[in-house]
Amino acid sequence: MRKHSLLKTNILVCTIILIGFFITAIVSYRSNIGVFEKDVEHVSTLATEGINSQIESIFSRPVSVSLTMANDHLLKSFLTEEIKHPGNRAYITKMQAYLDAYRKKYNYDSVFLVSTRTRHYYHFSGLNRTLYEGHPENVWYYNFLKNDEEYSLNIDNDEATDDSITVFVNCKIRDANGFILGVVGVGFKVDSLQKLLHNYDEQFNVEATLINEKGYIEVSSLKNGHEPVNFFAGDALAKFKERILETSEKPQTFWYSHDNRDGYVVTQYIPELKWHLVVENDVSAIRSKFREQIAWGFFIICGVIALVLFAITSLIKKYNAQIVKLTVSQETEYHRLLHNATEELYENIYEMDISRNRAGGETTRRYFESLGIGADGSYNQALEAFSRKIREEYVEGYLDTFHSTHVLDAFEKGIHNLSYDFLCTDDGSNYHWMRISAQIFFWHSDQSVRMITYRKNIDTEKRRELGLLEETLKDSMTGLYNKRATEQLIAEEIENGKGTDRKHAYLIIDIDRFKTINDQYGHAFGDEIISEFTAELKSQFRNDDIVGRIGGDEFAVLMKNVDQTDNIREKLDRICAKFARKEFGKNRKFHLTASIGTALFPEQGTSYRELYEKADQALYFSKTHGRGRFTIFGEEVSVSDTSRIDQRDMEALLHNATDGIAKLACIDNLSLLYFNDKFAELTGAPDKMLSSLHFSGWSLIHPDDKEKVQQAIVRAMPEKTPFTLFIRLRHYPDGHSIPVRISGWFADELYENRYPLFYTVVTDLSDVKS
Predict the structure, then answer these.
(1) What gap in Å lies between CA 622 and CA 612, rounded to an integer?
(2) Which domain holds residue 149?
(3) Tens digit of each residue's pLDDT (9 = 90 or more) over 436-466
(4) β-strand 504-511 against 180-189: which pairing, if any?
(5) Residue 608 domain flag
(6) Average pLDDT for 474-481
């Protein structure tokens, strides 16, 4: 045991140190890398902005000078008159002087002119030649003439400056009619650009390159662009080619990692040059250095762990015996004090040796004898003996909680306290609430798992708690179960009845025209009626039935274990008759009726929601067929003829329906499912015709308005949104048109489980002046 403890301690210490090291290393690495990456991003962005700015400065003036020369009247005159002076030396010298003046004025390395008529190439130094098509040195010229650009850049060797690599800015010269007379341009040596890029490479530790739209290098600190070199050939940035060659005016930035190479790239498109500036910062070496530092740190921490383990092992071995002795002494004192402190609060305190399944002391052995199992009986036998005093529904929970195997399992999981409340008896008839609390601990002296149990009479406390719980389930006015409790209790009863031969009847009972009672006599009188109605309702059912109030004037009842429909009908008939005969109100004689909708379990539903919907539909049938009656779902009512909105919504519609209300189903003939007297009077159609199953709602709508109605229904149907239309109805039998406004509301139910249905409130506009 001691060796195991020492090993666990060493493993724990190693784990803590390693976790601490890795957390510190990771946090430090991420922090340093984060700062480093931000610095790299900042430096690369600054370098890009600096290079871009200086390039704009370098190229803006050559472009401007070339454009100025292209529009110089003297130059155009020279090219126009060139054909008149073939081989005239004075004429050529004059032109060369003109070009040389521009070169000296702006300090360029080269200034040239090409005539499109003669293809003569004039140079500031006096060199001239003819540019023949097909010669590789002249490709730039003929390509430039073919494109639509007014100016362009190319890098080539300059014969006038010892074939040095030069950046040329070329510009077309046009006459008044737009005809190209020639090409003029200036040039400066590419090494000035290379020097600029090299300076930034050295200063910011980056690699800057200018590439063209095809991805070939124009200028870099090492390449001059004279020989075509593909920037992406075999490079880590090849997969980012499309991103780099984007022509967005904003800089593009990204990190990359490829083939052990890490870096950060900033690209900037330079529209004036049609080149892309690529600034790359390779951080592979620095990141590798960071990783090396972490590896060295790991080796160092391993050495530290070895020294710590050696020190801990020596100390633990030296003081282990003293620590164990002190621990046992303190634990023994703790249990003694605990026993003394709790013996006045609890009826009985017993100690069990769970490891050996026996009593843990003399007091407990005497208690085993009192149970009739003998002083040497097992703990589990005592458990079984005491369970005979416990009420049946709590026995299984008691045995599961305190059985020795469960106690050992709880101790292994780190659970040291158990508790269980139950009803028990001392005389076999009177039950009271008791709580057994247990504390599990390890006894070092004999290496056993032990448990001390405490019994406490909690009858007063428990009954007060259950009373408060009961109050939360009751409706404050009527004393019946409230809506939430009613639904929960009925749902549990239905769930328990599945798979058995139990049959129940679910009732929804609604006081007829209760809103009128409140409106005419006030809410105080209405509350009085509710209270009297509740007392009468409760008296009609057995104590075992569930009776609750689920709305202001709506009640629900579950009649349990009723298997004869005829008996249910007789019961409901008596209830309706009793309500109709009874006088309500203390200070006035008031008669009322109640409508009932009923659904049977399990025939018409095996869930609370199913029974509620069926009973609610049956209630609606009772409401719309005379009130003061009951309806059992499936006899007079079915799903197909009860699709509707909530009764309270119906009352609101009726209240607003000054000229009529109708219910229609969205099928081909727009079936009319319900209408009131005002609607029949407005249309002039007889009730028999409107009630026919074959009657089409479309026949009431003017033919010219049918499409408008159809479109409105189609638009409103997906979200069930209310809609309003101004249309014309056809009056029966003379067929004259009646201008009306219809307001439609979709219901939640479906007609025949398939078709949406909606209610319309119809307002006659015949008397409204336009």
Answers:
(1) 15
(2) 71-189
(3) 989 998 888 788 899 988 888 888 777 776 6
(4) unpaired
(5) yes
(6) 87
